[in-house]
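Shipment paperwork, digital attachment
Item: protein structure file
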Amino acid sequence: MNIIAARPSTDLVVWPEAAIPYYIDQGRQFHLTEMGPLPPQHERILAGLLTSSRDASGKVHYFNAAVLFNQTGEMLGLYKQVLLVPGAQQYPFRRVLGFTRAFFPIEDVSYAAMDPGKEFEVKSST
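Attachment content:
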């Protein structure tokens, strides 16, 4: 059985939050074709994903993000979630207990170890 997920007139396909199952390092160019072949309809894709980046001191920060890809899989824009869900995405009482984060590998506390984005706007990748 061949199931078609989008009609020829579809302009945008929305994938769920964290649809890409690993952290995307913002220090390198990511292309959606790394996940496999793109749909033949050639529509833009909006996907939730997890990103990481290093600050000037070398500390790694983790973000919950949304990314818009063009029809060929190139990243057009990135939004890092600013308002995190306490306990699920953000470490509770982080200013007081944040030092305990170093005792756990990120995979064990990934959603509670997110850092908030700083701006309520999409950053263009081009």
